[in-house]
Amino acid sequence: MAEQQPLEQEAPATNPLVLRPAPQISSAVTTHIIMRDVLVALAPATVMSVVLFGINALLVIATSVGSCVLFEYLWCRLRKTESTISDLSAAVTGLLLAFNVPSTLPLYMVVIGAFVAIIMTKELFGGLGRNFANPAIVGRIFLAVAFPVAMTTFAPPSIALSPVDVVSSATPLAPTAEPLSLLELLLGTHMGVLGETSALALLLGFVFLLVRPVVTWHIPVGYMGTVALLSLLAGKSPLEQLLSGGLVLGAIYMATDYSTCPATKRGKLVFGIGCGIITCLIRFFGNLNEGVAFSILFMNLLVPYIDQLTPNIPVGGEEIMAERRRARRAKGGEGHE
Amino acid sequence: MGRIGGGALARRRSVELRGIHIPHNKETAEFETVSMPVPKLIVLPMQQHVGAPCMPQVKRKQHVDVGQLVGHADARLTADIFSPVSGTVKEIRAIHYSNGVSDEAVVIEPDGEQTVHPAIEPPEVTDFASLVEALKHSGIVGLGGAGFPAWAKMNTDLSSIDTWLVNGAECEPYLSTDYREMIEHPDTILEGIKACLDLSGVPKSLICIENNKPKAIELLREMAADDPRIDVYELPARYPQGASRVILRNVTGRSVPRGGHLTDVGALLFNVTTMSEIGRFLRTGMPLTKRRLTIMGDAIANPMNLEVYVGTQISEILEFCGCAPGPRKVIVGGPMMGTTQVELNVPIVRQNCGLLAFGVNGPVVPRQTACIKCSRCIDHCPIRLSPIDIHKAYLARDVAALDRLMADLCVECGTCSYVCPSKQPLVQSTRLGRAMLRAEQRKAKGRR
User: What is the predicted pLDDT for the residue at B100?
Assistant: First the structure.
């Protein structure tokens, strides 16, 4: 496409008019601004994590963000391509990865997680927009599998509403854990990884993302709604299920990752519901305490299929789409929805 | 198509195509129209419409009067071209547009007398066939920018048409020409509509106006109050409400099937200025020789709504409006769908709506980065297409995918490119992909 720069140089001095295909204007929203908005949305939760877990939390966040950005920069240098760190997507991945680990995690493990996220999950698949799985999720899962003890050793929060006696304890979802009050879950004054403790701070960021708008409601509401409904059916407290573990963080900030979620709003709703179902299956029947990361990863893998089955129906293409659906049904194959 | 019945409210909520908010920049909206004096030169291209180009009907050194036939073609789809001035034909030469298209043009040197051609008199119209016949000799085409000959649009079976839509949306930023027509000439607009309804038997007409033009809505509603067939419909002020498929969907809930026309679903759509010109033509018999342009941009010292003679060169108009020397970007039309110009000696033709000139601070589009799959293009496409997939299919020259994605339904509004945060050339690819798809479809038809 005709870029403006070369044309301007080629044009003779007597006729410097720019030739460019329409449209001549474009919105001020760029990738950089979107990622900046995500960082702003995560700010309340970042502050909350430092308040609760102190200087260690700050160190983990700085290491994670720093090494993610550094890995991306080095990768671009290695590939001799223009550096992409200014789009801030690596910083978002770094912050999300930090939110997924406990404040006590040794910093070299954080760097390993950042390597898995940025190099192995994102850049090896072509960089921003081309990765099939959420980098921070894969980083978290890698760390949880490689360093299971370190990843489940939590420091007590500085503010505690109920007495805390053990330094090493599982998440509130673990069967052995003491039950927590809803207020504690909302404020995050309990043990857990950095970013998933305070649901309130995360929800505040969600409102900001909806207003900007950076994300639509479809995935978070589909995800959390499904979990609430299934919890109710399983006879568990829906609020407790919603507010515990990484659900709010995952549903709002990780499942909504652009490159790893479906394209249409219908597809996003299906994706969110799917995440909710898998999370509940893992939580209620599985051996793991926490199912958010795995459920998002599983659904990431299904995105191409969801995209195929949930296209938008063009205005004027209604009959053609209906015919295609009928033809697909007649073939007997993918009867969906 | 199955949506024709049903309550108005339910219909609206379920189908409304919302569009996007783009800064309107319509600072000249309340500027009264200024008439430009007769220019030094008139350049009349022989194609100022959709259809077959005209053949020059005049010779070099021949004298012409205002309203005299200059170009005509014996074709199924065409529109005559008339002289907007009295003067002498200087030459007939080739002109070249910035989009690579060339055309033949009759160049007239005005004598400043503006003597009207003796044959000009109000047409005798008794029935719909005679209206169509009269409009064949009016030079009136779709003045919203499409340039589709008005007579040809009407020349169809009208028995199934239940709504005569009049498009006063004017959703392109900057432009106010249709708005000025509604404010300054509501009488001829309504005369045109009434004549068309009377003669065609179409039961109702809706004048569709974006709700950022409350004065026009109020004025036309008031003036049309005595005719129960005519009503004003308020559209949301969101781009691209003026696109024909969008306006049809939002007003009637119907959608035009792929490859079909508005008439297939019982509607006709004319631009509001086109209807006004029809009313004026029926009153005076003077063919279309002038048009209003919104002249704006940061290089223009005196932004205005300017009535120019069709065929006036861009350079003369820019001079008249006090354009700073050496503009960097000159756009004919609006910023979303207009075309940039590389030569300023090309003329304004009858379907042009605006002329924008920008200096160094003009609109610049930031550079392209990697697609982040944010699906903004998909969420905002007024036709609910998938622009990014069409873009990829075009880059892969995959005609089968372009067909599956129905790239030919695109209305080229440019919303996808506007909202894209990584600034992908989405509508640009779709235009090229659509051309590729159409070429392939023609080839397939030829083989059969």
Answer: 87
The ipTM estimated for the assembled molecules is 0.88
Distance CA B148, CA B167 (A): 14
- Which residue type does B302 have? N
Residue B394, domain member (yes or no):
yes
Taking an 8 Å cut-off on Cβ atoms, the answer to whether B386 and A311 are in contact is: yes
Cβ distance of A31 and B369 shorter than 8 Å: yes
* Of residues B409, B411, B407, B416, the one with CA closest to residue B374: B416
Q: What is the pLDDT of residue B11?
A: 39
The torsion of the CA quartet A299, A302, A304, A310, rounded to 10 degrees, works out to: -80
The pLDDT of residue A12 is: 47
CATH architecture of the domain formed by A31-330: Orthogonal Bundle (1.10)
B263 and B301 share a domain? no
Q: Is residue B13 part of a domain?
A: yes
Q: In terms of DSSP H, where are the helices of chain A?
A: 4-10, 31-79, 89-99, 107-115, 135-146, 148-151, 182-187, 199-211, 218-233, 238-243, 247-249, 265-285, 292-309, 318-330
Query: Residue B39: which domain range?
Result: 34-120+287-358
Q: Are B64 and B83 in contact (CB under 8 A)?
A: yes
Query: Which residue of chain B is at minimal alpha-carbon distance from A214?
Result: B374
Q: How far apart are CA B154 and CA B107, in angstroms?
A: 31
- Structurally, how many domains does chain B consist of? 3
Domain annotation covers residue B110: yes
pLDDT band at A178 (very low <50, low <70, confident <90, very high): low
Q: Between chains, do B338 and A87 touch, taking CB under 8 Å as contact?
A: no
For residues A196, A200, A203 and A207, what is the CA-based torsion angle, rounded to 10 degrees? -150
CA distance B374 to chain A (A): 5
CA dist B270 to A240, B40, B146, B262, Å? 59, 33, 10, 11
End-to-end Cα spacing for chain A? 39
Q: What pLDDT is attached to residue A125?
A: 95
Same-domain pairing of B436 and B294 = no
Please tell me whether residue B328 adopts helix, strand or coil conformation.
Answer: coil
Residue of B nearest to A3 (CA): B367
Claim to verify: residue B262 and residue B173 sit in the same structural domain: yes
Residue B355 near residue B314, CB atoms below 8 Å: yes
pLDDT tens digit sequence for A220-239: 999 999 999 999 999 998 99
In the predicted model, residues of chain B with pLDDT beneath 70 are 1-16, 361-365, 448
Q: Where are the alpha helices (DSSP H) in B285-398?
A: 314-320, 376-380, 387-395
Question: Searching chain A, which residue's CA lies closest to the CA of residue B356?
Answer: A24
* Same domain assignment for residues B277 and B299: no
Interface mutation vs chain A, best among B381, B384, B411, B413, most A CBs within 10 Å: B384
Please check the confidence at residue A187 and state whether its pLDDT lies above 50.
yes
